[in-house]
Amino acid sequence: MTDVANAGEALGLDGLPVDPALIAEAAALPEDDAAARHANLVAQIEAANKAYYESDAPILTDAEYDQHFRRLVALEAAFPALVTPDSPTQRVGAQLAGTFDEVRHRRMMLSLSNAFSHDELRAFDGRVRKGLGLPAAPEPAPELRYVAELKIDGLAISLRYERGRFVQGATRGDGTTGEDVTANLRTIGTVPARLSEAVSLDARGEVYMPKGEFARINAEREEQGLPLYANPRNSGAGSLRQKDPAVTAARQLSTWSYQVIEDEATPLGLASQSGALDRLQALGFAVNPNRESGLDIEGVIAFTEAWREKRHGLPYETDGVVVKVDAFEQQERLGMVSRAPRWAIAYKYPPEQVETVVEDIVAYVGRTGTLTPVAHLRPTKVAGSTVARATLHNLDELRRKDIRVGDHVILQKAGDVIPEVVRPIVEKRTGEEREWDMPAACPVCGQPVVRDEGAVRHYCANAACPARVGQEFGYFAGGMDIDGLGWAVLSQLLERGMVKRRGDFFRLTVEDLESLDRFARKSAENLYSAIQKVRRRPLERIIASLGIPQVGWTTAIELAHWLAAEVPDGPGAWLARAAALLETTATDRPEVFKELEGIGPTLAASLAGYFGPGGPGEGVLEDLAAAGVEAELPAPRAAVVVGPLAGKTVVVTGTIEGFSREEAEAAVREAGGKPGGSVSKKTDYVVAGPGAGSKLAKAEELGVPVLDAEGFRALIRERE
Fold first, then answer.
1. Using CB atoms within 10 A of its CB, is residue 263 exposed (0-12), middle (13-18) or buried (19+)?
2. In angstroms, how far is CA 629 from the centroid of its own chain?
3. Which residue has the higher pLDDT, 421 or 668?
4. What confidence tens digit (pLDDT) does each residue in 107-122 have?
């Protein structure tokens, strides 16, 4: 065991969050116990890294991960022999998933060490002063200045520009090699295709999902009975790492840029981080305006306090502040440790949890009829806003957490956005708390509530239920991007019978809107103008806005491409002819839906039921066409002439390591194959992972070759 006072610096751990109390705790362990604890921590951190960086599905909260990492650093500081080159303390990020082509970074993309208190920020300042040969605090050091920037909780990216043109974009990956996501980055509006100067450089930054988009997608997934995304960071990362750029484009991602890697061919002559940020902005990059330069460490601390509460009002997620030495010359002198620069640190705000009381639980009816239990809470402030309600998702989840009416509970905001009841405070129960059950009848229309067999969803089967109708029309208005058409306006339009079909939105006049309560002429003209602006929309957005059960963006994109290829140009409204094809297919040839990429029997049945005779979608598109709505058709897909799966049908089932379902099926398409929805004698391969069920059994029964994730990767990488 080494002298713990100098352990961090001796091991190259200086700059990492070495906690003296944790080091002392570790140093007291017998060596065998320390080794066992070290192995356990490494295993947990590597599993968390894999889930976070590769699968975009975290298994630890940020706070839990940080605590594990700090304990690992302390163990290695106390027992240097435990340090190995592949320890998480010596590496950045995680291994690549193998889904995308690899890109080697021109300069390593580093991670940042974390600080969790003002004292740790002051300790960082002490290390910087020592490294630069400056007097220790509190002596003044006017030549040392910091830049403070809000920490964006997104996916780190590197953007390569040559002579002012965007040529390549990559994720951070393991810090040395990332994944080529150029096509997807081109769909993000804040990634400039051309700079204001013909310079060559690499710009580093973060891709993130705005809070509003995160909430919209999760609301959509909950209505479809799909698992909810954990937070905006992982939703954004998963959206960027889609094989189909159209899926990325539909997610409304954004970026902030914060670092420049200059090119020798066109040097920019930058001398400081603050100057680099200004230059990035002048070149056309999105640079976060919430930053401050010229600070000493007490100024940095004041900046963190100023944003502690104010950050909750931002439209994006930030969980801390990044602090950097401003002068590049000083950064060069300070250098780096194995995984992080010595000249920068990330201050992270602690997760905020509060206690409140569940005053009632009420079932709300969504657009597909799904009944969602919602906790009515004693109003309390958390993460910058007052929360009075929180979804409990479904009856099974409510029972799993054992939430009861009258319970004292712990409340937080998942991803700083969505109120979440974490757990009941069981020790505060008095015996008067009441267990809740799903109502037998719809609370709005009184029709029986049905539970999907083998699923967690309870729903009202009455398609005419006023709650369902209102939600469906609201979903359509939001999906079509009609600005200013909120619930208060929609309720009046429905109650007065001014909107009975979706096409009726486009038949409204200024005078109709002016007759609504609290509407003046100007507000009526503004809403009318907003409606006119969306008369022409991308076909996939029109389809997605219909709210077809189980149909999300990926399926909407597939339907749009199929319709664009099948419906010819001609006289009259193209959308009406597309509607006729959908209804004919649903009525006479529903098996055609199963032949489309990524659409299996369940989705095909949903489409047939929606567009078929008596279905809720019968006549919807014709009505939109009659109201003057026009569709923008997707560009034809480039035909795959050759590939390792050319002419092959591949069915994906279960959880495939390193791939989401959408990514796996997109990989099949890129390799020239066709994703199948069901297993038959015509199926060439089944790719199966944990959770595979009847499809795997069917494949084994028919003798269809079955591949695991490793075999699948090997197959799609083959070349003719």
1. middle
2. 31
3. 421
4. 888 888 889 899 999 9
Helix axes 574-588, 553-566, angle to 10 degrees: 100
- CATH architecture, domain defined by 649-716: 3-Layer(aba) Sandwich (3.40)
pLDDT value at 641 more than 60: no
Say how many C-beta atoms besides its own lie within 10 A of residue 406's C-beta. Answer: 16
| Residue (of 399, 417, 397, 420) closest to 409 by Cα position | 420
pTM, rounded to two decimals: 0.49
**Strands of 290-338, DSSP E:** 291-295, 318-325
Residue 712 or 441, more confident:
441
Contacts of 563 (CB under 8 A, 6+ apart): 539, 578, 581, 582
Residues sharing a CB contact under 8 Å with residue 566, sequence separation 6 or more, in sequence order: 581
Secondary-structure percent of the chain, ordered helix, strand, coil, rounded to 5: 40, 20, 40
Mean pLDDT of 492-511: 94
Sequence ranges of the chain with CATH classification 1.10.287.610:
4-90
Report the alpha-carbon distance of residue 13 to residue 579 in Å, rounded: 64
Look up the CATH architecture of domain 4-90. Answer: Orthogonal Bundle (1.10)
| pLDDT at position 367 over 50 | yes
- Say which residue, 598 or 423, is predicted with more confidence: 423
- Give CA separation, 223 vs 376, 392, 480, 649, in Å: 20, 13, 18, 30
Helix (H, G, I), strand (E, B) or coil at 139: coil
Please write the tens of the pLDDT for every residue from 320-362: 999 999 999 999 999 887 568 899 999 988 767 889 999 999 9
Confirm or reject CATH 3.30.470.30 for domain 114-348, answering yes or no: yes
Does the pLDDT at position 463 exceed 50? yes
Judged against a pLDDT cut of 80, whether residue 7 lies above it is answered with no
Which residues in the chain are classed under CATH 3.30.470.30?
A: 114-348
Q: Which one-letter DSSP state was computed for residue 341?
A: B
**Are the C-beta atoms of 372 and 389 separated by less than 8 Å?**
no
Per-residue model confidence as pLDDT tens digits over 180-225: 888 889 888 899 989 999 999 999 999 998 888 888 887 776 665 5
Per-residue confidence at 102, pLDDT binned at 50, 70, 90?
A: confident
Sequence-distant contacts of 292-298: CB under 8 A, at least 24 apart? 292/147, 292/148, 293/145, 293/146, 293/147, 293/148, 293/326, 294/145, 294/326, 295/145, 295/146, 295/147, 295/148, 296/141, 296/144, 296/145, 296/146, 297/121, 297/122, 297/124, 297/125, 297/137, 297/146
By residue count, the chain amounts to 720
In the three-class reduction of DSSP (H, G, I as helix; E, B as strand; rest coil), residue 307 is classed as helix
The residues annotated with a catalytic role in the active site are 151
Percent of residues, the chain, with pLDDT higher than 90: 36
CATH number of the 466-534 domain: 1.10.150.20
Please choose, from the candidates 620, 597, 12, the residue with its C-alpha nearest in 3D space to the C-alpha of residue 247.
597
Domain with CATH 1.10.150.20 in the chain: 466-534, 538-632
In our burial notation (b when 16+ CB lie closer than 10 A, e otherwise), range 27-64 reads bebeeeebeebbeebbebbbebbbbbbbbbbbebebee
* Topology at the third CATH level for domain 538-632: DNA polymerase; domain 1 (1.10.150)
CATH 2.40.50.140 in the chain, residues? Answer: 354-460
Count the Cβ atoms, other than its own, within 10 Å of residue 648: 17
Q: For 563, what's the count of Cα atoms within 13 Å in the CB-facing half-sphere?
A: 28
Q: Are strands 371-382 and 354-365 parallel, antiparallel or unpaired?
A: antiparallel
CATH tag, 354-460:
2.40.50.140
